Amino acid sequence: MPGNQYNGNSSHNSGRVGRLLKIREQKRNKSAYSNELTDNHRGTEPCEYDLRAREGDSLNNSYIEQNLEGAITQGCEKPDARPLRQRLLVVANRLPVSAVRKGEDSWSLEMSAGGLVSALLGVKEFEARWIGWAGVNVPDEVGQKALTKALGEKRCIPVFLDEEIVHRYYNGYCNNILWPLFHYLGLPQEDRLATTRSFQSQFEAYKKANQMFADVVHQHYEEGDVVWCHDYHLMFLPKCLKERNNNMKVGWFLHTPFPSSEIHRTLPSRSDLLRSVLAADLVGFHTYDYARHFVSACTRILGLEGTPEGVEDQGRLTRVAAFPIGIDSDRFIKALELPKVQEHVNELKERFAGRKVMLGVDRLDMIKGIPQKLLAFEKFLEEYPYWCDKVVLLQIAVPTRTDVPEYQKLTSQVHEIVGRINGRFGTLTAVPIHHLVCFYFENSVGL
């Protein structure tokens, strides 16, 4: 595929744009004719009608230019009106707030600091509404109403999932099947028969959860809204939404890598997931490589046609594009100016004075390579003992998916490695590794 990214521009109404171009050309010809008449009558004062006509031409030309600009760039039907703020429904597995129950009808909410939240803080052109799971099980109607009201004040809309669905959908299919596969770790291989049975159960829960998200979206959808679905938790959501309202504008963005077609082919539900995502109007990825892998999977597994703009299926084009994601850097710059932050920075400088500091900030996840990082640091200290008292590794780890056995094993492994290294190379006054577990962000991961 040529180019370094997929072209995500929407097709334009060529008939309407052509009419606008024709009208603009007619106005220009009329203006030229008017100028010619003026040259022929040079030295005479223009009459009042001529002034009004020229002023009208100027206004009409301005109108045409604005309308044409809007038609080409945004398809705006009312260029002379003040643009309305587009309403955006952001649908993610987790809401950007963490809920804690204080009573039968009382809830405490705190803003989370996950990657999706940080990325969307800079989106100010839209009136956003968040739809997602609040992270807690609320079986009673009184609690659901109270939480819905509390979240509504923060422009959030909850999806209520019971514990069984969460276990099989989130801990099961999402984090035990899709997450490892999308990071090239493969499917679980402990017991093939048991894995097959649990896989089918988890897959059914995954589809049911996606349908529950779709039901909530349809309850709050208004004509003209744009629905933006996020991540591998909701790959069935575009199809569920389009089946009930084909005119709905739906986008889907993946916050993880998308594997090559050879890896994706090993997933039993590979075709169902691909076709469900293709129901969206626009599919986005972090990098061009991920977008290319997705298009390749659609062509090799589904037999569809891949184009530089996306994937075409029987005349319908699903646009595929790469959208590198970032953060709101101004928030971090302003945070450095806070007195508490400055005080803490000075404390750290005094504490580690005279030593080189290596900083690592990672989620406690199997794909982040924290054990490998620690073992590499141990190897460095073995080969260069001179640096034992001159360097320190400050590793901040954010716990995630604490209910999944594989992540529990990873946590124990990291703690064991840190203890062994500090025991070998530590002294009475200093240790080479400072391992900090940051529980503050625990509820924000997975956004």
Features:
alpha/beta; nine-stranded mixed sheet; Rossmann fold; disordered N terminus; 3 domains; 447 residues; three-stranded parallel sheet; 14 helices
Describe this structure in words.
With 447 residues, the chain is α/β, with parallel strands linked by helices. The protein has three domains: 14-73; 86-322, Glycogen Phosphorylase B (Rossmann fold), CATH 3.40.50.2000; 336-444, Rossmann fold, CATH 3.40.50.2000. It is built from 14 helices and 14 strands. It has helices at 14-40, 48-73, 115-120, 141-152, 163-182, 192-220, 237-244, 261-264, 270-278, 288-301, 329-335, 339-351, 370-383, 405-425; strands at residues 86-94, 97-103, 106-111, 126-133, 156-159, 226-230, 249-253, 282-285, 305-307, 310-313, 316-322, 356-363, 391-398, 433-437. The protein has a nine-stranded mixed beta sheet. A three-stranded parallel beta sheet has the order 12-13-14, with helices on one face. A two-stranded antiparallel sheet has the order 2-3. Strand 2 and strand 3 (106-111) form a beta hairpin. Helix 1 runs antiparallel to helix 2 and helix 9 (270-278) crosses helix 10. The longest helix is centred in the middle third of the chain and has 29 residues, at 192-220. It starts with 13 loop residues before the first helix and ends in a 10-residue tail after the last strand. The relative contact order is 0.09. The model is unreliable at 1-5, 7-14, 31-83 and 440-447 (pLDDT under 50). In the C-terminal section; belongs to the trehalose phosphatase family. In the N-terminal section; belongs to the glycosyltransferase 20 family. It holds the Pfam family Glyco_transf_20. One of its GO terms (biological process) is trehalose biosynthetic process. One of its GO terms (cellular component) is cytosol. This is alpha,alpha-trehalose-phosphate synthase (UDP-forming).
